[in-house]
Amino acid sequence: MNAIVSLKNATKSYLLGKVAVPALCGVSLDVQAGEFLSIAGPSGSGKTTLLNLVGCVDTPTSGTVEVAGHNTAQLSERELTRLRLHTIGFIFQSFNLVGVLDVYRNVELPLLLQGRLSGSERQKRIVALLDRVGLREHTRHRPNELSGGQRQRVAIARALVTRPSLVLADEPTANLDSVTGQNILDLMKELNRTEKTTFIFSTHDARVMSHASSIVRLADGRLAASAHSDAASQAELAELEPMQTGERLPRKRVGGTS
User: Could you give all domains of the chain from N- to C-terminal order, each with its CATH number?
Assistant: First the structure.
């Protein structure tokens, strides 16, 4: 089975003045199509950096990142844009909504850029999805008229509306109450089951980890061994030691998707 995401010895460093600060250190990881994978780890462990590399928002300092069979370092800006638009849905921790557009238009934007659906088809898909995330009554509100949790739900709807084969979610439930967060997770699990959508989450949330088909952990920019997705997972993860640079991650499946 081909991996939809494959990182080989991927590193990423950022310059702080004249000093190179490592964010990822030789990460090697394969994610198979249809996985519901949780990337766990404390703040500063490199979770967001990893998602940015997979999402073609950033490029590795060294090593390779392949998405849907494409080595992202070998793609032009236009090709990267097409890959993001047609393959990847990205739920940013900071929402990244367009302030001058209302909820409906924010969710519609990637569909307009794709140019594949008619106006009536777009409307049907958008309204159904906004209903699923509990924003049907807020379609004409702009982001500054919404709470943080509502903006998070708009960002989630926007990421899912194109029905991408890969969804990257950076702390997707961080701004949601427990009921709404559970509803969003249920929706994502449904898409994972019915559409075989691959999900990769970064999270501190035990609820998200409990839904995962497998869990990996980052610590100080390195991958650590896997853990079960159960109530004890966080305690288990906290005890795991970082792996050596470039070592492949042996992951244990948790439950599995149907």
Answer: 3-238 (3.40.50.300)
Percent of the chain as helix, strand, coil, to the nearest 5: 35, 25, 35
Please state, in angstroms and rounded to a whole number, the distance separating the CA atoms of residues 9 and 15: 20
Query: What is the number of alpha carbons within 13 Å of residue 126 lying toward its C-beta?
Result: 25
Q: 181-224: per-residue pLDDT in tens?
A: 888 888 889 889 988 999 999 988 887 888 899 999 999 999 98
Candidates 35, 41, 38, 29; CA nearest to 247 is: 29
> 140 φ, ψ to 5°?
-100, 10
User: CB-based burial of residue 250 (10 Å sphere; 0-12 exposed, 13-18 middle, 19+ buried)?
Assistant: exposed
- DSSP single-letter state for residue 221: T
Number of Cβ within a 10 Å radius of residue 170: 22
Residue carrying the six token digits 């097409």: 82
Cβ–Cβ < 8 Å for 20, 191: no
Q: Cβ atoms within 10 A of the Cβ of 40, count?
A: 29
Location of structure tokens 């943080």: 148
Residue 71: what residue type? Answer: N
